[in-house]
Design brief:
100 residues; five-stranded antiparallel β-sheet; 31% helix; globular; PHA_gran_rgn
Length: 100
Protein backbone atom coordinates (compact mmCIF):
# COMPACT_ATOMS: atom_id res chain seq x y z
CA UNK A 1 0.00 0.00 0.00
CA UNK A 2 1.36 3.48 -0.83
CA UNK A 3 2.20 5.87 1.97
CA UNK A 4 2.19 9.58 2.65
CA UNK A 5 4.84 11.27 4.77
CA UNK A 6 5.36 14.77 6.16
CA UNK A 7 7.98 16.29 8.49
CA UNK A 8 7.55 19.73 10.04
CA UNK A 9 10.30 21.31 12.19
CA UNK A 10 8.91 22.86 15.36
CA UNK A 11 11.72 24.93 16.97
CA UNK A 12 10.35 24.55 20.50
CA UNK A 13 10.60 22.07 23.31
CA UNK A 14 9.20 18.62 22.65
CA UNK A 15 6.72 19.09 25.51
CA UNK A 16 5.46 22.43 24.11
CA UNK A 17 5.06 20.95 20.63
CA UNK A 18 3.19 17.96 22.07
CA UNK A 19 0.86 20.24 24.04
CA UNK A 20 0.06 22.34 20.96
CA UNK A 21 -0.79 19.22 18.96
CA UNK A 22 -2.85 17.62 21.70
CA UNK A 23 -6.10 18.45 19.91
CA UNK A 24 -4.81 17.90 16.38
CA UNK A 25 -7.73 15.74 15.25
CA UNK A 26 -10.29 18.13 16.72
CA UNK A 27 -8.75 21.07 14.84
CA UNK A 28 -8.70 19.11 11.59
CA UNK A 29 -12.37 18.24 12.12
CA UNK A 30 -13.21 21.93 12.76
CA UNK A 31 -11.33 23.34 9.75
CA UNK A 32 -12.28 20.64 7.25
CA UNK A 33 -15.71 19.52 8.49
CA UNK A 34 -17.16 19.46 4.98
CA UNK A 35 -14.40 17.14 3.71
CA UNK A 36 -13.34 15.04 6.72
CA UNK A 37 -15.60 12.61 8.57
CA UNK A 38 -15.24 9.94 11.26
CA UNK A 39 -12.12 11.46 12.80
CA UNK A 40 -10.40 9.28 15.41
CA UNK A 41 -7.36 9.91 17.57
CA UNK A 42 -5.49 8.03 20.26
CA UNK A 43 -2.31 9.32 21.90
CA UNK A 44 0.25 6.76 22.99
CA UNK A 45 3.19 8.61 24.52
CA UNK A 46 4.52 11.01 21.89
CA UNK A 47 2.67 9.31 19.04
CA UNK A 48 -0.83 10.13 17.89
CA UNK A 49 -2.60 7.35 16.01
CA UNK A 50 -5.28 8.95 13.85
CA UNK A 51 -7.81 8.07 11.21
CA UNK A 52 -10.46 9.81 9.14
CA UNK A 53 -12.55 9.47 6.04
CA UNK A 54 -12.49 11.89 3.16
CA UNK A 55 -14.60 11.44 0.07
CA UNK A 56 -15.53 8.00 1.38
CA UNK A 57 -11.92 6.84 1.59
CA UNK A 58 -10.42 5.81 4.95
CA UNK A 59 -6.97 7.15 5.82
CA UNK A 60 -4.94 6.14 8.88
CA UNK A 61 -1.59 7.29 10.12
CA UNK A 62 0.70 8.24 12.99
CA UNK A 63 1.95 11.64 14.07
CA UNK A 64 5.09 11.54 16.22
CA UNK A 65 6.45 14.46 18.21
CA UNK A 66 10.26 14.30 18.05
CA UNK A 67 12.83 16.60 19.67
CA UNK A 68 13.14 18.81 16.57
CA UNK A 69 10.22 17.97 14.31
CA UNK A 70 6.80 16.47 13.90
CA UNK A 71 6.76 13.42 11.67
CA UNK A 72 3.57 12.10 10.08
CA UNK A 73 3.33 8.87 8.14
CA UNK A 74 0.37 6.85 7.03
CA UNK A 75 -1.10 4.40 4.60
CA UNK A 76 -2.84 5.74 1.54
CA UNK A 77 -5.37 3.59 -0.28
CA UNK A 78 -4.76 3.28 -4.01
CA UNK A 79 -8.05 5.09 -4.63
CA UNK A 80 -6.61 8.18 -2.91
CA UNK A 81 -3.21 8.26 -4.65
CA UNK A 82 -4.21 11.21 -6.82
CA UNK A 83 -4.79 13.23 -3.61
CA UNK A 84 -1.45 12.38 -1.99
CA UNK A 85 0.03 15.85 -2.55
CA UNK A 86 -3.10 17.57 -1.24
CA UNK A 87 -3.21 15.35 1.85
CA UNK A 88 0.47 16.00 2.61
CA UNK A 89 0.20 19.77 2.10
CA UNK A 90 -2.97 19.98 4.21
CA UNK A 91 -1.31 18.04 7.05
CA UNK A 92 1.80 20.24 6.81
CA UNK A 93 -0.30 23.43 6.86
CA UNK A 94 -2.45 22.31 9.78
CA UNK A 95 0.55 21.22 11.88
CA UNK A 96 2.36 24.48 11.14
CA UNK A 97 -0.75 26.46 12.14
CA UNK A 98 -1.05 24.57 15.45
CA UNK A 99 2.63 25.06 16.28
CA UNK A 100 2.54 28.85 15.91
Amino acid sequence: MPQFEVSVPHGQSKQDAHERLKNFSEKVREHYSEMVKEVEQNWEGDTLHFGFKTMGVGIKGNLTVNDNDIHVRGDLPFTAMMFKGKIESTLRDEITRLLT
